[in-house]
Amino acid sequence: MLLFTPGPTPVPEFVRVAMSEPTIHHRTPEFEEIFATTRMLLKEVIQMPEVLLLASSGSGAMEACVTSLCQKKLLSINSGKFGERFGKIAKAFGIPNVEIKNEWDTPASVESVLEVLKQNPEIDAFCIQACESAGGLRHSYEEIAKAVKNHNPKIMVIVDSITAMGVEKLDVSCVDALIGGSQKAFMLPPGLSIIGLSQCAIEKIEERNVGFYFNLKTELKNQVKNTTAWTAPTTIIIGLCAFLQKAKEIGWDKIYQQTKARSLACNEAMQSIGLKIYPTKPALSITCVYDEESDTLRKILKNKFNVNIAGGQDNLKGKIFRINHMGLIDISEISWVVNAIELSLQELGRCEFKGTANQVFLKHYFKLIK
Ligand SMILES: *Cc1c(COP(=O)(O)O)cnc(C)c1O
């Protein structure tokens, strides 16, 4: 079965092999060396002065960032399930929260953010997704982060880039916390989250000292010494180290270029067989198609053609399907996925199979990659 969901992504063989070694203890020079290498390689990818690894799924890092960096009032962008989560975290911790809510196909605008900031001078932290995975939407987080910092440089900018880190080169010039997760573009099992930190965020974390398990001050103190506050998820970190080494060998620029080409070519292919791309501004990590028959189509894809793609949640349940582009993906696999979607449409009696989707995909892919 080809796993093409936007998280979890498949774990490549070289990563599985690296993780199959006998368990080592986390308080050893041997593990500290692996941890140091992993931290260094991650800092190269995200281009931020500090990085922390937590034993949690991505939401744990979201929680840690909100509680550590927001004291008074949070502004969050809700254009989907994951944006909504920031608001829910604030509520769970009794942090006042203003939310800018949009349809799941609509990115946040600079104007709307500035308007709320002007009306709420007590806002001291801002949360947004780089890619809102619920509808495959790309927010212009760079532009918005810049406007937020121009308005008030003290506002902490938290960017959930769980489906953007390792997908494209991210501009972190106005970002204080950049969140990543293991099970997306880094192709690892779920259970490890990543937080890139700016100098301002480091200072804020040291000054505030909040929480227990997700106390970033405690983590910072340990992780700069290449160890962790609690038992480290050693196996996933060993896998991450192997993945980052391989990615460096291939070259991140090349990986970004290939991801982009797969994504844009896939969007073209879907449109060539009459399908509609859902978000008004698509993210590179996911192709999201709006289709009323998406659940039946996904069933055919799975049962007849061995392809597993994701559907929609909440109000988009049964209305969209989502194809993953994150990670190292063999062109023959995505090519088959695109082909199988056209075959499934024929099964539904909606078109005659001509191989159009695959032809358009390959034509665009190789035009972009040459
Ligand atoms: C996957 C994902 C998360 C993390 O969800 P977990 O289930 O906690 O790993 C957060 N934000 C976005 C945008 C995601 O795609």
Task: Describe the model.
The chain has 370 residues and is α/β, with parallel strands linked by helices. The chain folds into two domains: 12-249, Aspartate Aminotransferase, domain 2, CATH 3.40.640.10; 251-369, Aspartate Aminotransferase, domain 1. The protein contains 13 helices and 14 strands. The protein has helices spanning 13-19, 29-46, 58-69, 81-92, 110-119, 141-151, 199-208, 216-223, 234-250, 252-272, 294-305, 331-347, 356-369, and strands at residues 2-3, 50-54, 73-78, 97-101, 123-129, 131-132, 137-138, 156-160, 177-181, 193-197, 276-277, 286-290, 307-308, 320-324. The strands form four sheets. A seven-stranded mixed sheet has the order 2-10-9-8-5-3-4, with helices on both faces. Strands 11-12-14 form a three-stranded antiparallel sheet. Strand 3, helix 4 (81-92) and strand 4 form a beta-alpha-beta unit. Helix 10 (252-272) runs antiparallel to helix 13 (356-369). It is globular, with a radius of gyration of 21 Å. The model has no long low-confidence stretch (mean pLDDT 98). It binds pyridoxal-5'-phosphate. Residues 7, 57-59, 82, 129, 133, 160, 162-163, 181, 190 line the site of pyridoxal-5'-phosphate.
